[in-house]
Amino acid sequence: MSSRSELNIPEPKHSIPGMGVSNNQGLLQWISSVDHKQIGIMYLWLSMVFLVIGGIEIMLVRMQLAVPNNHLLGPEAYNQLFTMHGTTMIFFVLTPAIFGFATYLVPLMIGANDMAFPRLNALSFWMTFFGGFLLYFSFLAGGAPDAGWFNYAPLNQYNYSSSPGINYYCSGLLLSGIGTVTASVNFIVTILKYRVKDMGLKQMPLFVWMILINSFLVLAAFPSLNAALVMVLLDRQLHAHFFNMAGGGSALLWQHLFWLFGHPEVYILILPIFGIFSEIFPVFSRKPIFGYGFVVASGMAIALLAFGVWVHHMFATGLGNTINNFFAASSLLIGVPTGVKVFNWLATMWGGSIRFSVSMLFGIAFLIEFTIGGLSGVSFAIVPIDWQLTDTYYVVAHLHYVFIGGSLFGLLSGLFYWFPKISGRVLDEKMGRWFFWLFVTGFNTTFLVQHALGAMGMARRVYTYPDLPGWGILNLISTIGGFLMAIAVGLLIYLLVRSVRTAPLASDDPWDANTLEWTTSSPPALQNFKQVIPVKSTRPYRDYKRPDDTDWSRKGGDGK
Amino acid sequence: MTQIGAERVEMENKLMIKLVVGTEAMFFLALIMVFVYFSLAPGFRQLQIAELDLRSTGLFSLLLFSSSFTYWRAEHSYNKGNIKKLKLWLLVTIVLGLAFLFGQGKEYVRLLHDHVNLGANTFGTSFFTLTGFHGLHVVIGLLVIGIAICLAAAGDFDNKASTLIGIIGIYWHFVDIIWAVVFFVVYVIPHIH
After folding, report:
1. Which one in A114, A153, A421, B170 has a CA-CA gap of 20 to 30 Å to A379?
2. What tens digit of pLDDT does each residue of A86-140 get?
3. Which of B16, B41, B129 lies nearest to residue A189, judging by beta carbons?
4. What is the distance in angstroms between the CA of the first residue and the CA of the last residue of chain B?
């Protein structure tokens, strides 16, 4: 292999390294990599770094809110911190974590050796990376963005926010948005063209199905955000009048464009999670998924309806009863396919022989927390309730129940499930349980009380508040819960780093799992598969391990 | 590469560019919706009629539309294996694209001379953003076709294994179709009544 020395780029000598950055092949090998597994791991580490940064920001915010009339932070610093917290968590924690799992797992799950366009894959990652870098550069450049993560006009205009922060918000999100779109193009081509020959669409793992649906959602939703970001930049830099009312523009236009992206975006952050759980519930209940077709179809229904509900973010803007009622109805409707999925998972567990691994614990916690978040979400579809509660802490509680109790629990569940495959090491289940209980307790302590605070009328995004009855104690409880979560995240990082370094080696198939990624070594070699086992059902590896009891030979049995 | 392998790569690359074009279409949809939204405000229509030259831009638009035809001829020549004709038709396509950009530039200069610019009013804001982004796409298309000519001159397409010509074609036709919509919305609609 003379070409290897000519290229002067270190190629991996044996199997792809685990999750550690410091490995025998050096940093350059990571930076120059076009291997989907390494890029996936880099996405996951990127997400972890931003989780810590976004977490520190919100801990400062919670400390400021711990007691009434506090002046630890001034209003300017407070605005920057909550804006950066929201933007970071959504665009640089949840999104890269989801794309990291997808980049790592989609080729493995469909029996492919890499993505369709490996270099495009690397481009997507580095776009996201530098998008985040650019966003955070704003701190050095004279002030972070301070108009909230949804950056409403007119607050995003120069007259209201004259620091360069919002310019960095726009350019950072544009870069990472392009990365997200190119990654989605890559996923669709990979899934549709690179499946192993005998895997039809009906044998595809549900995680892959959800990534496929999700990618179409990204392609349709992100352009709206990108266009809106460009318009803000033009407004601020070249004195255009898109959102500037004095020049004839429209502040509401921003809300339409943003939420036309923003509401599909929340489904972009939850559909892959539905996919993760549709893998995990069958494995740990030792049953096939209940209603495979319903999981897929309800995913499609969610994706389509996602584009018809955005105005429920704008009920308070006075668009009139006809419009409000239409979007109230569509918002109530979109709860149905989501509910269908919850029943799919419950029915999968029903009668199963359940193993309570940490991964499964997060799954069960997800069913409860996400249902709470879903119910508070449905309450916003009812216009009068929305008018009362919008822009209060009730919204904050709701969105954290779906983003943390939904998306983050799913990612953590996936992390505990796939960590042995990705790193080749066992993740300590006992300490994992400590982490689970600490995190779940902290999460509910922080956010359950915020429902009450919101109902009592505490507005979100105010940097301090008067000493009204109950407000002080509820906020203090919330802050204590925040510290519990911070300790839990610290524990998780310690657990991960320790496991990557010293934990015992994992077997290739530690969970007795069903899908193709478990048929390769842990971690997989540079070439994922030498040959792939036959795929005749949604649980090919189980069929392979139990040839006398296969899913495809059992007529009319459970499952599909 | 085997025959089946080459066909598979072509399918993949075609699917890729179709997805890119689809997401680009959504981007333009957002810009067009903003233009239409602003055009409903009083005074906007009058500005459209007074400031825009339907006839001149219409002529330059015809040049852009005919570049789709010449590109189709280029693709046809390539599939026939006639590299010489391929280069010729690609060159004609570029000339037509440049002529369109010249027309757009002429109109921009005239508008700026009339003090209609990005910051003048919502008409300037939405007009320059929409047509500017389309112009940017034309420029990118011309650059890519230019690269294709260089590759053809270097002999890269002699054995017909590349999917590049077909893929650029999908993009280039898309840029034309978008202009047809933009032209109709921006230039033609105010004259209908």
Report:
1. A153
2. 999 999 999 999 999 999 999 999 999 999 999 999 999 999 999 999 999 999 9
3. B16
4. 59
Nearest CA in chain B to A250: B38
CB neighbour list of residue B3: distance below 8 Å, 6 or more residues apart: none
Which residues of chain B have a Cβ shorter than 8 Å from any chain A Cβ? 8, 11-12, 15-16, 19-20, 22-24, 26-27, 29-31, 34, 37-38, 41, 118-119, 121-122, 124-126, 129
- Chain A nearest-CA distance from B92, in A, is 31
Q: Which residue from A185, A219, A249 is facing B122, i.e. has the nearest CB?
A: A249
Contact status, residue A332 vs residue A378, Cβ threshold 8 Å = yes
CB A489: neighbour CB atoms within 10 A? 18
**Quick check: A231 contacting B, CB < 8 Å?**
yes
Q: Which pLDDT score is estimated for B53?
A: 92
Q: Hey, is A501 helix, strand or coil?
A: helix
Neighbours of A244 (CB within 10 A): 22
Amino acid at B173: H
Q: How far apart are CA B121 and CA B117, in angstroms?
A: 8
A19 shares contact with chain B (CB less than 8 Å):
no
- List, in sequence order, every residue forming a beta bridge with A202; answer none if it has no partner: none
d(CA A232, nearest CA chain B) in Å: 12
| C-alpha distance from residue A268 to each of A54, A192, A220, A222 (Å) | 20, 19, 11, 10
Question: How many whole angstroms separate alpha carbon A311 and alpha carbon A294?
Answer: 27
User: For an interface test with A, which of B13, B20, B23, B39 has the most A Cβ atoms less than 10 Å from its Cβ?
Assistant: B23
User: Does the model's ipTM exceed the 0.90 cut?
Assistant: yes
Mark which residues 133-192 of A lie under 8 Å from B by CB: 181, 184-186, 188-189, 192
Distance from CA of B16 to the nearest CA of A (A): 6
3-state secondary structure of A516: helix
Question: What's the pLDDT tens digit per position in A148-195?
Answer: 999 999 999 999 998 999 999 999 999 999 999 999 999 999 999 999
Task: State the pLDDT at residue A7.
Answer: 45
| Cross-chain residue pair A241–B125, CB shorter than 8 Å | yes
The closest alpha carbon to A420, from A517, A539, A300, A350, belongs to: A517
Instruction: Tell me: cis bond preceding A523? Omega within 30 of 0 counts.
Output: yes
Query: Distance (Å, rounded) from C-alpha B108 to C-alpha A247?
Result: 21
Integer angstrom CA distances of residue A256 from A13, A251, A308, B36, B137: 52, 9, 12, 14, 25
Residue A13 makes CB contacts below 8 A (sequence gap 6+) with A24, A25
Nearest CA in chain B to A248: B122
**So what's the pLDDT on residue A555?**
63
Measuring CA to CA, which residue among A414, A423, A419, A415 is closest to residue A23?
Answer: A423
- pLDDT grade, residue A502 (50/70/90)? confident
Cβ <8 Å between B125 and A220: no
CA distances from A524 to A18, A103, A505 (A): 9, 14, 13
Q: Which of A553, A552, A527, A558 is nearest to A12 (CA)?
A: A527
- For A215, the 3-state DSSP assignment is helix
Q: How far is CA A15 from the centre of its chain?
A: 28
Q: Nearest 5°: phi and psi at A459? A: -75, 145
| B36 to chain A: closest CA residue | A253
